[in-house]
Amino acid sequence: MFITRTLSALLFTSITLTLTLPVAASDIYELQSYHASEAQGERKGPWLGLQQTNKSWRLVPVKPRFKKVADPISNEGIEVSAKVDNVRIMLSDRSLRAGTVMLSDEARVVSGSLDEEFELSSLPPLGQERLMHFMGSEYRLQNRDGKIYLSLQGGEQYLFDYTENQEDNNARLIWVGDLDHDGKLDFIIDTSNHYNVTELRLYLSGQAGKGELLKLVAKRRSTGC
């Protein structure tokens, strides 16, 4: 009887622990150095790196390293790295899995290092729109009164404010494709309009709620020196 009760207690404890384990939050990182305050938070993963292989793209498992480094601004910085080739961004979200991911017909991941690449990645100017196509559907990114909207098949969603600055314009599309394999476009966008600030946002269609096209699941803001 004692053994039976003990086993029952252990089983109950095991089930309870399983149910109460924390679920990893969604997150996004560029592989770079951050001020210490900008690289805090959920790091449990699992993590996937967005990897370019020839003309295709994949999500691949990565084990990130968060290393303390000297920082000229805050004295302490965090260097985020992963030992995987051709990975610049890593993501953590329960809906993502390793494997090939498809791009939109027009958009390509860009670095902004070349003028032509920056032009391809730019957001629509005030009063204009940018069209993208995927799986037979037409997506419209529109800039109306300094606000960016996404439209698809009669539905529309406001995404973020976009204050256009001709002398200091940094907001751009980083990657547009189907990250969560639901047949719809997902977006990684830098929504900053300052050359020394980056605010990466991860929008996933598979987690969109009622009346939404996308769900903002993660963002990370960082500043330069």
- Report the sheet with the most strands, covering strand number, pairing sense and barrel closure: 9 strands, antiparallel
Order of helices and strands: HEEEEEEEEHEEEEEEEE
Task: Name the structural class.
Answer: mainly beta
Helix proportion = 10-25%
What count of structural domains? 1
Give the low-pLDDT segments: 1-24, 110-116
Over the alpha carbons, how many angstroms does the gyration radius reach? 20 Å
Strand order of the largest sheet: 1-7-3-4-8-13-14-15-16
Q: How many beta-strand segments? A: 16
Features:
single chain, 225 residues, 12% helix, globular, disordered N terminus
Protein model, in words:
The chain is built from 2 helices and 16 strands. By secondary structure, the protein is mainly β. The protein has one domain (22-223). The chain has a 9-stranded antiparallel β-sheet.
